Amino acid sequence: MGDIMLFNKWSFDEIVINDVSLLPYICLKGKNSVFIPHSSSNYNKKKFRKAKCNLVERLLCSLMMNGRNSGKKIKAINIIKSTFEMINLLTKSNPIQILVDAVINSGPREDSTKIGYSGTARRQAVDVSPLRRINVALKLITTGARESAFRNIKSISECLTEELINAAKCSSNSYAIKKKDEIERVAKANR
Hints:
The protein is mainly alpha-helical. 46% of the residues lie in helices and 10% in strands. A two-stranded antiparallel sheet has the order 1-2. It has a two-stranded antiparallel sheet with strand order 3-4. It starts with a strand and ends with a helix. The model has no long low-confidence stretch (mean pLDDT 84).
C-alpha cells in the first residue's frame, strides 16, 4: 500500500510543525492520515480524545457548527476540498502545511480569566494550554471565514482560502490574527 494522501492529492509526510508545544496535539501522521476527513469516530466520549483527531477533520467539524450548515458534513467536505485546491493554486505549496501554519499562528498564547475574591471579581492573565490554543485557533479561522462570506459574492471556500493564507502569513488582514492579538493585549493589560 502506498502513501495515504488527503483527497488523493496532498501528502501528510512532508508536514513540518514548528511549534514544539503543539506537536502532540496536531495529529496528521501515522494512523491519523486519512483519504477523506470523515472518520465517523466519537472523539467526545473520553476527555482529551479529540487531541488524537486529524487536524483537517477538526477544521471540518468546526466548519459545520453554527447556523444553517450544522451537521452537513458532505457539504463541509466539499468546501474543504475546494479550499485546499485554491490554496494549492495560489501558493504552490501543500495546503495541509498552510493549515498547520495558520493554526499555529492564530492560537492565542495568553488569555485572561475571572478570579473572584470575597464578592469582587477581577481578571487575571493565564497561559493557554496547547489543546485550547488549537481549539480557539480553529474557531477563530472558521468564524472569520463565515463572517466574511455572509452577504458577500464570494463563496465560503474562497473566504476560507483567504483566511487560511493570511493566518499562515501572520497578516493583519486575517480575522483570526486580529482576534488573537486582541485576546493577548487584554491578557497583557491584566497581568
